[in-house]
Amino acid sequence: MTDIKSKVQGIDPSAKPRNIKQVIGDADNVYEAISVMEKRAKQLSQQIKEELHNKLDEFAVSTDTIEEIHENKEQIEISKFYERMPNPAVIATEEFISEDLEFRYKNELPQGDDDNQSEDAE
After folding, report:
1. Which of 11, 45, 56, 102 has its CA 20 to 30 A from that of 90?
2. Where are the chain's structural domains?
3. In angstroms, rounded to a whole number, what is the distance separating the alpha carbons of residues 115 and 119?
4. Under 8 Å between Cβ of 18 and 69
5. Residue 36 and residue 53: Cα distance in Å, rounded?
6. Three-class SS string for the chain?
7. Taking residues 53-68, what's their average pLDDT?
8. How far is CA 14 from CA 68, 86, 88, in A?
9. What is the pLDDT of residues 73-115, one digit of tens each?
């Protein structure tokens, strides 16, 4: 698993119109392409959320009083970085268009396993 910071460095955080033929890419149709990007966006969203919580937990201070609020500059900078990051849907779209995203159907075997399957069936 690669670091999300290095993955989003060159991605424009704003959504922009796309050529539908470019978006379809290797998918059979537009709906399949959108479904793949949607599933990847959910994965990225979960990964970003976990990463942010892990980093912010380092700064967690347990106090009994509500009045005490500590401002930590490092914590603020981390939060600002994650706020400026592109939306997971934008990241997933960029991955799909640049063909960095591999997908297959659940019942489909990975490439190269077809030969083994046919030998076992005989």
Report:
1. 56
2. 18-61+70-101
3. 6
4. no
5. 26
6. CCCHHHHCCCCCCCCCCCCHHHHHCCCCCHHHHHHHHHHHHHHHHHHHHHHHHHHHHCCCCCCCCCCCCCCCHHHHHHHHHHHHCCCHHHHHHHHHHCCCCCCCCCCCCCCCCHHHHHHHHC
7. 70
8. 37, 7, 11
9. 888 888 888 888 888 888 888 888 888 878 777 787 766 555 4
Half-sphere exposure of 97 (CA within 13 A, CB side): 14
Structure tokens at 104: 């297959």
d(CA 74, CA 81): 11
Distance CA 110, CA 108 (A): 7
Q: CA separation (Å) from 23 to 19, 57, 86?
A: 6, 38, 18
The angle that helices 88-97 and 30-57 make with each other, rounded to 10 degrees, is 130
